Amino acid sequence: MLAVSGATMVTASAPAFADERSDLVEQQQEQKREKERLQSELEGIDVSLQDAYLKLEETRGKIPEAEAAVASAQNELAAAVREAEANRALLDAAQGELAGIKDAIAENVANADATRKSLGELARATYRGDTMPSTMEMLVGSATAEDFANAYRAQAAVSRSHASSLNEFQQRAAQSKNREARQSAVETQIQDLKNKADALVETQTVKKNEADARKAELLELESSIVAQSEEFEAKKTDYQSSLQNIEAEGEKTAQRIAAIDEENRRKKEAAERAAREAAERARQRPGAPAPAPAQVSASWIQPPVPAPVYVTSPWGMRVYPFGGTWMHNGVDLRSRCGEPQTAPADGVVSDVVPAAGNGTHGNQIFINHGVVGGNSYVTVTNHLSAFNVSRGQSVSKGQVIGWTGQTGRVTGCHVHFEVWQNGRVIDPMGLSSFTRRWS
């Protein structure tokens, strides 16, 4: 029976445990997403400033959890105190009852002794023959009927008194036995309550220590926030310099793209001239079909990591948490450190720029995809941990060009991917072959 009851309890608690675990997992995932978001927002800023800000935000994020832990510990301490107080009240009541039982037993013993003494004297008198005369003796010895009636009533009263004394003695004996049994039970209860009181004192001490520890952790976090805020404010003096560096590096990238686009423009013009000349020659040959125009597939370009891609920070204007804006030329995608990144489309590696001296971008690859559908396309990949291609190398779509890293002014591994169309950066997630999934 006990085994069935225990199994029922475990089964009933399983859904609650599962829900709690699910909530904790979701909390972990949310914390991970928030960290990725902050890391992306701070891209390009001096790393020491990023670290100071992330450390400050991480500490701030721990405060609600620490406050909840303090409240929980204090509630458990209060519950332990209430239980100890209730146990003390029960103990006091039991001890009061025990004292009353002992007093009643003592009184009963004294009364029983007096009754016993009286009954003893009666027994000895009966043995000596000193008891009341018999009915016949009273009848013979009475001068009148009235004397006999009086004598008889007196004898009956004495008999009733003796019977009452005997009955009282028996009742007191039974009461004493019951009270002694109750005394034993109350003494056992008192010992159990004392044992429980000792255990509750120990529990209360443990709960108080836990509450004190949680409070100390909260105070330490609050103290850390003060120190980290001061550190962050001190490092913000480098913020403006970081913004200027970002603008300068962005301009440098734009100049590289412009040079590539110019090359593509010349190649396109040359190809168009060749096409016109071929068409003219074909026109002059009777019966020759005109060249068919090139068809461009919608899936000519793909993400540098396997789909569906998880966007941790979108393309577009970015607002820094502590002021200032800048254009985020690419999209940040979730990718673990060391994951292969591939060429998004066929093309030629126009530049491979190492992290040293490349500021925000870190290890950077430019791929010229030429003119597609009448537009010049260049893709840029930043923050790679290492290269797998070299400048001037032809690459095919899906070929590994490098591996995900966190080089440059960033604080976490991820993909930074840019698509330039005719010298202007566009949102890669607007391309039909990209499957968006927000992290």
TrEMBL record:
Molecular function (Gene Ontology), one example: metalloendopeptidase activity
Region (Disordered): 15-39, 261-295
Superkingdom of the organism of origin: Bacteria
Ranges of Basic and acidic residues composition bias in the record: 18-39, 262-283
Stretches assigned to the M23ase beta-sheet core domain: 327-428
A Pfam entry, by short name: Peptidase_M23
PANTHER family in the record: PEPTIDASE-RELATED, STAGE II SPORULATION PROTEIN Q
Protein's name in the database: Peptidoglycan DD-metalloendopeptidase family protein
Species for this entry: Trueperella pecoris
